[in-house]
Amino acid sequence: MLLQPDEQCCLRDIYAPLDEQGQNFIVLDYVDESCFNLFYSRCKQAMEGFPSSDRAKIVPESHIPGIVWNWSEVLRIMREDPRYRESS
Fold it and tell me: Is the pTM of this model over 0.90?
């Protein structure tokens, strides 16, 4: 589990448009700096672990670099957000 039970409030805030409004996207516009950076760190952790994950075993091996690249671009864009803080 990438988010601990005490971090679930951030997840609810981020996924509200998807879960409650039936949208096919998530929104980070209204989450605070803490939730934003928590989400960033968990996305980065998931991206780094993906190539050796069970999920990666069900996609063609040749697709893995592209999937990781796409996520690296999402993370790059997130680093440009003023709420982003590099973790120590």
Answer: no
Instruction: Decide if 14 contacts 26 (C-beta within 8 A).
Output: yes
Please, which residues have CB within 8 angstroms of residue 72's CB and are 6 or more apart in sequence?
47
Tell me how far apart the terminal alpha carbons of the chain are, to the nearest angstrom.
22
Return d(Cα 30, Cα 40) in angstroms, integer.
Answer: 15
Tens of pLDDT, residues 17-33: 765 666 677 788 889 99
Residue identified by tokens 């680093």 is 79
Report the C-alpha gap between 77 and 44 in whole angstroms.
12
- Those residues whose C-beta lies under 8 Å from the C-beta of residue 83, and which sit 6 or more positions away, are 32, 33, 36, 37
